[in-house]
Design a protein that fits this description.
The chain is an all-alpha fold. Helices cover 66% and strands 0% of the residues. The longest helix has 14 residues. The chain is elongated.
């Protein structure tokens, strides 16, 4: 069934139907659809079709999509960022970690926290050190602290407490949550 749907998807020229095909291929976890879904993710206009391809790539656990998805996490389209974040969580590739670290200092707060949420579940040996370094960057502190708290990094407790004194109220609340 998956191969038949993929064949139809590849022959399709209607952008509205492409979104449906992406969603179905993802739900059925058709791994052989990876190239088709990557093409949608890279080349379709910023649209629901592209956002659906992100989720589908996550559902098939496409390691090849990590770069596209990390790039989408920093893009200006909120739904695209949400779907890219979910896909990265689903894929859980440690390869994503080094590409996510710079996003902890992104100009947009929502991007910083999306990157932190993904980093919580990644098993990369350099992630804790990158998060600890991010505690020294005022814009990255709250997101990094939240990730460190959820990762239960004991050596982060003191730097988080120090950061608490230097932040505004909204960021202090997040830092306090990180302490548990």
């Amino acid at each position: 069934l998956g191969a038949q749907i993929l064949q139809r998807a590849q022959a399709n020229r209607d952008p509205a139907k492409a979104k449906t095909y992406a969603m179905v291929l993802g739900k059925l976890q058709v791994r052989s659809a990876q190239d088709y879904l990557l093409q949608l993710a890279r080349h379709s206009d910023p649209s629901p079709t592209r956002w659906a391809s992100y989720l589908a790539l996550g559902r098939i656990r496409s390691e090849a999509a990590v770069g596209v998805l990390v790039d989408a996490l920093g893009a200006p389209y909120e739904k695209g960022r949400e779907n890219a974040q979910q896909a990265l969580v689903d894929i859980a590739s440690p390869r994503a970690a080094p590409r996510l670290w710079p996003l902890l200092a992104h100009a947009e707060r929502s991007v910083r926290f999306a990157a932190a949420e993904v980093l919580v579940g990644l098993d990369h040996p350099g992630t804790n050190a990158a998060l600890l370094r991010a505690l020294d960057q005022p814009d990255a502190q709250a997101a990094a602290a939240l990730a460190l708290g959820r990762r239960k990094v004991a050596e982060a407790r003191e730097p988080i407490q120090t950061a608490l004194a230097r932040q505004d109220k909204a960021e202090r609340e997040v830092l306090a949550q990180a302490l548990g």
